[in-house]
Amino acid sequence: MLYVKGRPETKEKQKQRRKNMADFTTSTTTKSAVRKLAAPLADVTTFDNLVQGVITNNPFQCVAYNAQGVNHNPVERSKQGYTVRVVYQDSDAKTIAVTTVRAPTIASFTSTASLIVADTAIATALGGTPVRDLANEKYAASLKCHDANGEIYFVNFSRDQVTLTSFSDEAIRSRVETWADTVAALA
User: Fold this and answer.
1) Which domain holds residue 159?
2) Cβ count near 151 (within 10 Å)
């Protein structure tokens, strides 16, 4: 029983108060699906070829569209990021320091990695030899796709998984999965 200003609230008032409360109701149901890769993608070139291949070849049969007066391609890269990781090792090859830098493009990722490894001032300050930690570098890209049924959904790529988000039609998942089954790197 609820108390209001020191008095118990009647059951009638409780019912009325609940009746006046707004509830959230489900208007649509969106889904997500994840495909974990058996092995991480080998390098940034393999990653980029995979992502660019989807944009260029449109294997999900997406369609161009216009939103608020702006024309959009069927598949667009909506965001991306690449993390360079450089470890500094002492004379026994023990890691004594780590540098990571997140770059917005592959070009900046590549040039930043080269600059960090070549920077003797940083190496001297940290007291070690710089070595790229290629196995622990990260890559991520999100593709915005417009399905023929009008749905906009996202296919998110990382080095170790592909995630399909914001879709409701199972035919979309089926098309993405069918494509992924044909790509050896996505096993």
Assistant:
1) 31-186
2) 17
Chain-centroid distance of CA 130 in Å reads 29
* pTM, rounded to two decimals: 0.80
The per-residue pLDDT for range 52-101, each reduced to its tens digit, is 999 999 999 999 999 999 999 999 999 999 999 999 999 999 999 999 99
What residue type is assigned to position 175 of the chain? R
16 belongs to a structural domain: no
Q: Cα-flanking dihedrals φ and ψ of residue 186, to 5°?
A: -100, 15
Considering the domain boundaries, does residue 127 fall inside one?
A: yes
Q: How far is CA 126 from CA 15, 66, 119, 150, in A?
A: 68, 52, 11, 54
Any residues with CB less than 8 A from the CB of 102 and at least 6 apart, and which?
81, 82, 83, 84
CA distances from 158 to 25, 32, 37, 94, 146 (A): 33, 15, 10, 28, 21
Q: Residue 88: count other Cβ atoms within 10 Å of its Cβ.
A: 19
Span between the terminal Cα atoms of the chain, in Å:
57
